């Protein structure tokens, strides 16, 4: 696997990139957030808000649906991108994220288990079960790649994709046998179409995990250099890995119960940020969170407008855009794999 060394200083050639990228993210995020509030089948516009007043239909729709949807898109994009960044540090490989390591599939299996064994369980309980299964999935993946004799850059995510494929097939088979495929499908394609006030608040837990990642950012930078190096510096390697596993599992579960599966987000966003400012985790986290939020907001707006008044599942749009970016990153970095 490729070690990810944290940058201790900012090269002069990187500073201009950071400036324009920061300006772009800083402008795009509020613009897309405001646009998201006023895009949809039902009319919500500044004129309608002024005409109807605080008790009008437009104001009610804005507060009950559009604001929760926009906040969810921002938090999901930011937190899932951070989960991908932490996963890449734990594995020391730039081509991994919860969706390419089997973590998302394990969390989905946890959702299915909760549906089968505890059908009346509240959403918070389902998220807890999904987080436990996601934690197990992270541990299984880390154990599996330790046994891989040749740890090439592109081989590690392939192992994760195969692991996720096995778990996903088992989940689909069990759901089919128990006639739960339709229930399971609501998480298989990411979408914010059903987000309303009272149905998105759990994604704030993912935001708390982003804060945890920020607090432990320097430790994640160190373990990106390898276990031996981290231990020589006096770092409790296993403890930091455990913190990272919990952060990844909880974010994955919170996003899954809120919006469903969103592929490639945690892979492409940290890689783009790495190309701009380097690999220091503490320096990268605000950029990764901001770009992740912009990416999801943009894709959500596309999902709502491409076939207006119909809506394309967000997972489809993110999957197409993310897959294209993934291939570009793969071809760009493939020559440096070792």
From TrEMBL:
<feature type="transmembrane region" description="Helical">
    <location>
        <begin position="153"/>
        <end position="176"/>
    </location>
</feature>
<keyword id="KW-1133">Transmembrane helix</keyword>
<feature type="transmembrane region" description="Helical">
    <location>
        <begin position="127"/>
        <end position="146"/>
    </location>
</feature>
<feature type="transmembrane region" description="Helical">
    <location>
        <begin position="237"/>
        <end position="255"/>
    </location>
</feature>
<protein>
    <submittedName>
        <fullName>Iron ABC transporter permease</fullName>
    </submittedName>
</protein>
<comment type="similarity">
    <text>Belongs to the binding-protein-dependent transport system permease family. FecCD subfamily.</text>
</comment>
<feature type="transmembrane region" description="Helical">
    <location>
        <begin position="261"/>
        <end position="278"/>
    </location>
</feature>
<keyword id="KW-0813">Transport</keyword>
<feature type="transmembrane region" description="Helical">
    <location>
        <begin position="312"/>
        <end position="331"/>
    </location>
</feature>
<feature type="transmembrane region" description="Helical">
    <location>
        <begin position="71"/>
        <end position="91"/>
    </location>
</feature>
<feature type="transmembrane region" description="Helical">
    <location>
        <begin position="202"/>
        <end position="225"/>
    </location>
</feature>
<feature type="transmembrane region" description="Helical">
    <location>
        <begin position="103"/>
        <end position="121"/>
    </location>
</feature>
<dbReference type="InterPro" id="IPR000522">
    <property type="entry name" value="ABC_transptr_permease_BtuC"/>
</dbReference>
<keyword id="KW-1003">Cell membrane</keyword>
<keyword id="KW-0812">Transmembrane</keyword>
<dbReference type="Pfam" id="PF01032">
    <property type="entry name" value="FecCD"/>
</dbReference>
<feature type="transmembrane region" description="Helical">
    <location>
        <begin position="285"/>
        <end position="306"/>
    </location>
</feature>
<dbReference type="GO" id="GO:0005886">
    <property type="term" value="C:plasma membrane"/>
</dbReference>
<keyword id="KW-0472">Membrane</keyword>
<dbReference type="GO" id="GO:0033214">
    <property type="term" value="P:siderophore-iron import into cell"/>
</dbReference>
<dbReference type="InterPro" id="IPR037294">
    <property type="entry name" value="ABC_BtuC-like"/>
</dbReference>
<dbReference type="GO" id="GO:0022857">
    <property type="term" value="F:transmembrane transporter activity"/>
</dbReference>
<feature type="transmembrane region" description="Helical">
    <location>
        <begin position="20"/>
        <end position="41"/>
    </location>
</feature>
């Amino acid at each position: 696997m490729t070690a990810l060394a944290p940058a201790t200083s900012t090269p002069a050639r990187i500073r201009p990139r950071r400036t324009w990228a920061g300006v772009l993210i800083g402008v795009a995020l509020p613009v897309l957030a405001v646009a998201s509030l006023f895009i949809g089948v039902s009319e919500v516009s500044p004129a309608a808000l002024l005409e109807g007043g605080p008790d009008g239909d437009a104001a009610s729709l804005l507060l009950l649906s559009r604001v929760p949807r926009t906040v969810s898109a921002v938090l999901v994009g930011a937190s899932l991108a951070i989960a991908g960044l932490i996963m890449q540090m734990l594995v020391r490989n730039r081509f991994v994220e919860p969706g390419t390591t089997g973590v998302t599939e394990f969390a989905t299996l946890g959702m299915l288990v909760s549906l089968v064994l505890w059908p009346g369980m509240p959403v918070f309980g389902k998220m807890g079960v999904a987080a436990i299964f996601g934690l197990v999935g992270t541990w299984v993946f880390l154990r599996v790649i330790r046994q891989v004799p040749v740890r090439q850059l592109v081989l590690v995510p392939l192992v994760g994709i195969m692991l996720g494929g096995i778990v996903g097939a088992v989940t689909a088979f069990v759901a089919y046998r128990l006639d739960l495929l339709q229930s399971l499908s609501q998480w298989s394609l990411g979408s914010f179409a059903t987000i309303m006030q009272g149905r998105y608040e759990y994604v704030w837990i993912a935001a708390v995990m982003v804060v945890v990642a920020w607090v432990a950012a320097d430790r994640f930078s160190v373990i990106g250099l390898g276990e031996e190096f981290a231990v020589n510096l006096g770092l409790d390697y296993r403890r930091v890995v455990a913190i990272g596993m919990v952060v990844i599992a909880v974010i994955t579960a919170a996003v899954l119960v809120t919006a469903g599966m969103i592929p490639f987000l945690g892979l492409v966003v940290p890689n783009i940020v790495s190309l701009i400012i380097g690999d220091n985790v503490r320096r990268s986290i605000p950029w990764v969170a901001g770009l992740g939020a912009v990416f999801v907001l943009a894709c959500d707006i596309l999902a709502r407008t491409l076939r207006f008044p119909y809506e394309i599942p967000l997972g489809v749009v993110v999957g197409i855009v993310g897959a294209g970016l993934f291939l570009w990153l793969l071809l760009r970095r493939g020559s440096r794999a070792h």
